[in-house]
Amino acid sequence: MTRQEDSTRPTAAATVVAIALALDMFLYGAIIPILPELPAVDGSAMLSGVLFAVYAAAQLVTVAFVGRAVDRIGPRRPFQAGILGVAAATLLFGVATTVPGTAGLVLLILGRAAQGVAAAISWTAGLALVAAVYPAERRGQAMGLTLSAVGIGVLLGPAVSGQLAGWLGPAAPFHLIAVFAVGDAIARFLLIKVDHRPPVEVPFRTVARGPRAGLLITLTAIGAAALAYLEPVLPLHLDDLGVGAGGIGSAFAGAALAGVLSSPLGGGLTDRLGPNRVVAIGAFIVAAGFALAGRDSTALAVTGLIVVGFGAQLLLAPTLVLIGRLAEHQRPPAYGVAYALYNLAYTAGLTVAPLAAGLLGGLAGITGATVGAAIAAGALAVVMSGRR
């Protein structure tokens, strides 16, 4: 029989995973304000886009392997190994800030790839760990609190990095991140205990064919897409309305803060009302936000952005709980594969949404792009409100 002291405490698991996800998003955003100043990028929009694409590609390639590894050997060792990717990315970014030309670009690409691998590990193994240690009736709130840390990382990464780079130079943010990474590593190795559960050998296709798997993956992609949809088009709209770079950054920070507040709310409501109702509420809120975001008013557009940030997290919080239940459809539960599917869907949403928004924005303008998104979100809300 497993002794209590040999088991990972649920609160410790949620805390350590929250730290890991916050650090991942902090590192993700830290490069944004200094990107135009990096000598290897030299102000190229194409190279900037390549760096963001490398992160997503590395995550997509890695996540399936991580999911299988989590089920075979448990989440502990993969989750602890993920800190190596964070360390490699931080080191490569810190060095690349002063290296021009092809050599600097290679360092940046390798750093972004290492970060994508680390993110795939932290998100898949970390969420599988939280799902495994929390009972189903408490999992929604725990997942909501864990995801709120993502918003904190999104909120602070660009802001802190921009200030530090301005004061101490472009490498300074990564010195700070290195300190955070040491604390993260200590937490991962001290607080996450040995996993005594038996190995699980469940193919991806088996979990993907589980009850409501298609719906859950679709909702995950939609929630991520809602977060990313306005990123390529709303800054241009706000710029046309006379809002400067500082104001645009503050507006998106406000949306991230709204997501921080709504994540634990969505988790708690899922435990009380059930996933379908919470998804319907989140979709209605997102629809209202999209309808406001395209208006020719700075106040309404910024309000719409913040409302979308709030509602999108209500969409995502229930999916984490439902995918946990999908994992438990197998015996023993296949948490690794289930949350790998979640991360694949999430990354797909983040990838497709900006492309769709840019295409619709070019064809129909910002109003057409946001109204189209509002109609789609409203239709989702109606469908989910009618489901049992």
Automatic annotation (TrEMBL):
Q: Where is the Major facilitator superfamily (MFS) profile domain?
A: 10-388
Database matches in InterPro entries:
MFS, MFS_dom, MFS_trans_sf, MFS_Vesicular_Transporter, Tet-R_TetA/multi-R_MdtG-like
Per the record, the domain of life is Bacteria
UniProt keywords (A-Z) are:
Membrane, Transmembrane, Transmembrane helix, Transport
* Protein location: Cell membrane
Q: How does it sit in the membrane?
A: Multi-pass membrane protein
What's the main place this protein lives?
membrane
Pfam families assigned: MFS_1
Transmembrane stretches in the record are 12-35, 47-70, 82-110, 116-135, 142-160, 172-192, 213-230, 242-262, 274-293, 299-323, 335-357, 363-383
Write down the PANTHER family for this protein, in alphabetical order.
Answer: GH10249P
Protein name from the UniProt record: MFS transporter
Organism, by scientific name, is: Actinoplanes sichuanensis
